[in-house]
Amino acid sequence: MTELKLSIDKDVIDEYQGPVPKHIGVIMDGNGRWARERGMMRIRGHHAGAKTVRTIVESCRYLGCQALTLYAFSAQNWGRPEDEVKGLMSLFDLYIKKERKTILDNGIQLRVIGKRARLGPKLIKAIEGLEEVSRHNSDMVLQVAVSYGGREEILRAAKEIARLAKEEDLDLDDINEEMFSSKMYSPDLPDPELIIRTSGEFRVSNFLTWQSAYSEFYVSDLYWPDFNEQEFVKGLNSFGGRERRFGKTGEQVKNEVSS
Ligand code: FPP
């Protein structure tokens, strides 16, 4: 186990005594509104949001989560104004350089999921460099979804399965949920147990569409740049207090726990 070097308020995280989600997904929303309400350019909100990224990454690492997936840029975000897209791409590049040490010092493995070919050679090189050096880290996976869409990920899997059926005699009876899951970007990760969305919006927005079938949702009213350890613990407490039934009855679940 790596000795942790973290800058978060650990006492706040220690207040949470419930079950730790193996995988947490976060839809980081509200950067633009945060900036606009302060009379700033939207990109300033994204820069402020990058600081919150550090807080949530460290909090999840401290808590002992196996994986954290952050929705940083959707396939649909390419339609935003050119200067905002450029600013975000520069910010991702800066993040990789600035957070390299924190990621490596804390045994975190970085993965970027999505259509990376659109990101440009410089950013791709930076991503692949950090993915490579952090590849053997096993304390937590930090998965950043960039140029990502849940439907696109499902389509990509469906095309690969169609190819196997056409070219390698895959039997249709062998196509099941487990096999389909194995064609997703990160088949080794458990599905997210908790998905947090900030800025009070109740939408999934094409995030982990396949994997979120049974995820619990927590919606925070705070804009992403204001999200912090306290609000994270609120989300965890909400998750910890829920009964997860996976389609069964409450009585069945209670009997399973007590047997
Ligand atoms: C959504 O808020 C946020 C984004 C599209 C970008 C998220 C990016 C970051 C938090 C930057 C740092 C991330 C990493 C991984 C370094 P919005 O712009 O849609 O906000 P709005 O709904 O208020 O307009």
Short description:
The protein has 259 residues and is an alpha/beta fold. It contains nine helices and six strands.
Any descriptors?
259 residues; alpha/beta; Undecaprenyl pyrophosphate synthetase; 6-stranded parallel sheet; 9 helices; binds farnesyl diphosphate
Overview of the structural elements:
- It is a single chain.
- This protein is α/β, with parallel strands linked by helices and about 260 residues long.
- It has a domain at about 20-150 and about 195-240: Decaprenyl diphosphate synthase-like (Undecaprenyl pyrophosphate synthetase, 3-Layer(aba) Sandwich).
- Helix content is about 45%, strand content about 15%.
- The protein contains nine helices and six strands; from the N terminus they run αβααβαβαβααββαα.
- The chain has helices at about 10-15, 30-35, 40-65, 80-105, 120-135, 150-165, 175-180, 230-240, 250-259, and strands at about 25, 65-75, 110-115, 140-150, 195, 215-220.
- Helix 3 runs parallel beside helix 4 (about 80-105).
- The model has no long low-confidence stretch (mean pLDDT about 95).
- It binds farnesyl diphosphate.
- Farnesyl diphosphate binds near residues 28, 32, 72 and 144.
What is the architecture of the domain at 20-149 and 193-242 at the second tier of CATH?
3-Layer(aba) Sandwich
List low-confidence stretches. Answer: none
What would you call the structural class? alpha/beta
Instruction: Name the CATH homologous superfamily of the domain at 20-149 and 193-242.
Output: Decaprenyl diphosphate synthase-like
Q: List each distinct ligand once.
A: farnesyl diphosphate
In CATH's first tier, which class of the domain at 20-149 and 193-242 applies?
Alpha Beta
Order of helices and strands: HEHHEHEHEHHEEHH
Report helical residue fraction: 40-55%
Strand tally: 6
The Rg value, from CA coordinates, equals 19 Å
> Which strand-content bin applies to the residues?
5-15%
CATH fold name of the domain at 20-149 and 193-242:
Undecaprenyl pyrophosphate synthetase
What value does the average pLDDT take? 95
Distance between the termini: 33 Å
Spatial arrangement of strands, main beta sheet: 3-4-2-1-5-6
Described by the principal axes of the CA atoms, the overall outline is globular
Give the biggest sheet.
6 strands, parallel
- Helix tally equals 9
